[in-house]
């Protein structure tokens, strides 16, 4: 026994319907991700990119610190500072992006 869905007047594609945009449930997850990435503000994107860049540079600095120890060289103090301040700053920026993006998504 199959049931056919009923179409009400509000569901039809008449002159007053809002059928021009595809509902979010009909879009694939990839399309939703691409659309949300395009709708991001430049400030949020800059926050994310700067957090990632600082974290990557700090990780490279820590790797260079370890390499300098392994080859018995005197490590530069900047490598210590990158690990001490760069990693927490980079992760804090990325966390700030996650929080700001969640707030922006909730408002929309």
Description:
The chain crosses the membrane at residues 46-72, 78-104. Residues 1-38 are annotated as: Disordered. Helix content is 65%, strand content 0%. It is mainly α and 108 residues long. The chain has a domain at 41-107. Helix 2 (42-70) packs antiparallel against helix 3. The longest helix has 31 residues, at 77-107. The radius of gyration is 25 Å and the shape is elongated. The two termini are 41 Å apart. 8% of the residues are buried. The mean pLDDT is 79.
Oligomer: single chain
Write the element-wise H/E pattern from the N-terminal end onward.
Answer: HHH
Note the total helix count.
3
Q: In which range does the helix fraction lie?
A: 55-70%
Head-to-tail CA distance between termini:
41 Å
Structural class: mainly alpha
How much strand?
Answer: under 5%
Mean pLDDT: 79
Q: Could you give the count of β-strands?
A: 0
Region (Disordered): 1-38
Transmembrane segments: 46-72, 78-104
Keywords: Membrane, Transmembrane, Transmembrane helix
